Amino acid sequence: MIVCSCNVLSDHDVRNAVSAGGPVTRNAKQVYGCLGCSAECGRCARTIKAIIDEALGPCAKACCAGCPHAGHPHAANEDDAEPAELALAAC
What we know:
Blueprint lengths: L1 E3 L4 E2 H9 L8 H7 L10 H12 L35
Antiparallel strand pairs: 1-2
């Protein structure tokens, strides 16, 4: 399903960015950075955040002991729902 019409990003693209190696992708601006694009209108930010939360499961808010994502630098309490926060970020 296409979640970002401006950049033609699918839910699979978002899930792949989240599951890719390296730093954990935890917000929309990091997804855009990993996929080599930038936010246009921002309407997809909430949907992208929901896909990230679903993909990370219990790790979406904070990692627990034994979590496969433990040890990665998580961005604490970042809310990327506002388009102003969707600037391009490096992966």
